[in-house]
Structures
1.
Amino acid sequence: MKDVTDTARIQAEIIQAFNFRHATKVFDPDRKISEGEFETILEAARLSPTSFGHEPFKILMIQSQEKRELFREFSWGANGMMNGTTGQLGTASHFGIIVVNTAEAMTAGSGYLQDFYRNVKQLPEDVIEIFNGAYGKFQSTDHKITTDREMTDWAGKQAYIVLANMMTSAALMGIDSCPIEGFDMDRTTETLEKHFGIDSKHYKPAVMFAFGYRAADPQFPKTRRTMEDTVRWF
């Protein structure tokens, strides 16, 4: 059981990690994250919460520089924000893409979900029936997630929970990171299908990411709105 001192220490470490973290554009290419540390980051991803516990994502780790270069031309966000450097693609210790399930899998009652309920969640048939009804209502009535794009975007929300947990876990270990949305969606989808065997009928890219150790400290201090402007209590 934690005492007051332990709680205060944990609180301080959390805030320190969030102040430490910044969107690193260029990493030190000579510093690599240890296998054990990155395994912890991936475990944080695997254990992350997702809506209905559906885990509608896969993480693609792209460590080959040759494979990374396939994205160079149309991923300006992974080029150090176009500052003339090799950016995250060329310098990150670990680089990856989170792809998310499309409507093919995420529509209530899909064969994919029935298999998921039985073999991953290990639910009995009567509970699966309850899940189908509740999730179907959530999609069609509560949130009106009905089109292919809406379902893929919903899955993308889950990917951002996953990536946030990865980045926070990394920051707690003194490891830098960067979430990356600056890429052409169509060309990324095409590249994943052609060179990585990712079926675009079932998966779409949601977000890229990079992890490593910063090449230099941030040029500008971290700025955020005040707590009063951020939170309203009722």
2.
Amino acid sequence: MSNYLAHSEPLHEGTLPGGHHWSLLMRRGKILRLIDTGGGANVGMLFYNPADKAERYNAPDTLKCQHTFKITRGHCLYSDMGRIFCSVVEDTLGWHDSIGGNLTDAALWERWGKVSYQEKRNDWQISGEHAFLVELAKHGMNRRDMAANMNWFSCVSVDGEGKISLKPGHSKPDSCVALRFEMDTLVLMHSCPHPLNQAASYPKAPVTYQVFSAKPVAEDDLCRNSCPENRRGFVNNVIYHQEAAS
């Protein structure tokens, strides 16, 4: 990842325990690196424009623009305004789930039982749905602001009948993915299980996160030049930032 880094040392790093959630403001020109510490992690993630939270991650446009079912190095994540929130500048897995969605409370209770915070305190089991709703509320949003999410470190496949299944053992210990932010972005994330996870007990896989400064985007940048649509997306970002500065 050194080709994209302005400095090799992270500005900040920490650990998101399994079954937890967090949100942070990623500034333009910063990189968020996620590391699956022990393997088997899932990181659900949503993106919003902090200056106008009505602008948010658009999964259909992201896939349609880049003619892909999977997300990996060289791909960009789009907003519903045709702008690019972030680019995937490094990836050791080659596939991250863009269509699997989010674990609901109902699915969690059916699969692993209903456990309250009063019973288990910080060791209780929560769904990705619950996690996102908590983080949305912190920023003045609610359920109607929830969009289709990314699932980092997870891989799904579709059979001939259209049934989606989760690939077991996809993410090994120390697998990583790095996102370079092309505009200021409010990032919501959780480490709750993928909705298709069939583990016998509620899985809790921790994730390390690191924030770096990125080098300026070069003319031959892989993400910008991987397809014509991405070049237009970067132009949309330039126009947006010029308008915001005027």
3.
Amino acid sequence: MNRIRLLIIDPQNDFMDVAGAALPVPSAHADMQRLAQFVDTMAGAIDDMVVTLDSHATVSIERTTFWLDADDAPVAPFTAITAAQLRAGQYRPRDGNRTDDALRYLQALEAGGERTLIVWPVHCVLGTWGHAITQVLSDSITRWEWASGRNCDRVLKGQNTMTEQYSAFRADVPRADDPRTLINRPLLERLGGGDEVLLVAGEALSHCVAASGQDMLAQFDTQRLRNTVFLTDCMSPVTGFEDAGLVFLEQLRAQGVRTLQTSQVADLFE
């Protein structure tokens, strides 16, 4: 029988579409209910489990708490801020001492021609309810730990306040002064090694799942790509970014990575 290695990306309360969530992703709660049921059903076949956790401070560069506009008013969530706008005075950090560092960051982020800073609501602050794994999945993980005698590893990401980190494996702009922002090679090697089927689930498809997947799969050989499955009924996009999620799924298929629902994966292990 095939064995399973499971990577779950950011299954946290603040991303669930439930009361009190700071950044709800439509259908995320149902996604995690399906994933929890899958973990319970397939527990005997799961050899390894890793959960990544978006882990932030209250004030950091990608948050509303960091920025003011030209009138010294708070910046609305989902505002895009560019280096040119910062130079022109359209936006500025609340803490003026961070202006130069923020400008360097925006310039580095935009250098590739694909990314612009988006200001998000404050979410997944380390130690809060929003940071925690959503209960239904947390309970399922705990049952697997008791039954298997293994521990699910919880990997924190996004702790540096001056760079974004969508990917589980590196910050968007790595900083030489903070090893936490550099590429996580031990995790890549752990997931890329062995002959188990690597299953990937989590939130949100359009952002952290896509960024993690792109970084991870760029390091995998052809055989590992073919042995990787993204669980499409256990991940959903952020509202307004649905097309980005669809594009990422097409990229996966073009690389030979399977995109399946949990019911289809379960059939592989009968």
